[in-house]
Amino acid sequence: MNNSTPSARTDGELLRVAGAVLTEQGFNIETVTGTVDLVLAENNYFVVAVAAMNTIVDLIQAESMAVETLAQRIASVVLGPKKWDTYLVLLTQEKSAENDAITRDLYAINYDTSRVRRIAHTGVDPTPDSVSHALAPFFEPSSSMASSQTDPFESLLRALTSRGVDDELAQRAISAFKQGAMLDDVL
Q1: Which residues face 89 on adjacent strands?
Q2: 27 in a domain, yes or no?
Q3: Cα-atom radius of gyration of the chain, to the nearest Å?
Q4: pLDDT above 90 covers what percent of the chain?
């Protein structure tokens, strides 16, 4: 058993990267040192606390202390509706092994919604891409994704004509659909 304090078992590098990623995504962050070191982050939608531990066992042992720290912090401020969108994200670089007890413990963490919601991620490398992937549920979709979407009617037109439907007939059918007409009216 590891007798060092949970704070001494913190993965400082992973926690630092998490803070940088959250800042880049527009979160206001604060670092909290204590029984478990946390990066507290807040944006317009969420309050997210991130703890990064050296091992999965450290992560499991630190979870209750991190929840307590976060619960005390959110109780001391007025969050309004964001109180219901408060999350504790627990990260570790260690990859999860085929261990039933560890799997049960991680499952229990991920499905415990008392006081705050929890998400435990294993196998998270201390890189911006890996940490971004772990924290993705809290990020707004990029605008490039929205601008790269094509008009569904244009896609349908291309699909119909590529399958041998006359271009004029396909255009009439799509126009009729947009206006709420029946397909029989087009044929």
Answers
A1: 50, 119
A2: yes
A3: 24
A4: 50
Distances (CA, A) of 156 to 43, 114, 145, 159, 161: 38, 46, 20, 5, 9
Q: Rounded to whole angstroms, how far apart are CA atoms 118 and 89?
A: 6
Query: What are the residues facing 97 on neighbouring strands?
Result: none
- Do 62 and 6 meet the contact criterion of CB atoms below 8 Å apart? yes
Residue 1 lies in a domain: no
The length of the chain is 187
Same domain for 177 and 85? no
Give the domain CATH number at 95. Answer: 3.40.91
Q: Are residues 72 and 93 in the same domain?
A: yes
Please report the DSSP string for 111-170 in residue order: T--SSSEEEEE-S--SSHHHHHHHHGGGSPPPHHHHHTPPPHHHHHHHHHHHTT--HHHH
pLDDT of residue 38: 95
User: What would the pLDDT profile of 71-107 be if each residue is shown by its tens digit?
Assistant: 888 887 777 766 778 899 999 999 987 888 999 999 9
Burial class (CB in 10 A: 0-12, 13-18, 19+), 116: buried
**The pLDDT value given to residue 88:** 96
Answer yes or no: do 160 and 123 share one domain. no
Domain membership of residue 180 as a residue range:
150-186
Residue type for 132, please?
A: S
Q: Say if residue 72 is in the same domain as residue 160.
A: no
Q: Are residues 103 and 165 in the same domain?
A: no
Residue 59 lies in a domain: yes
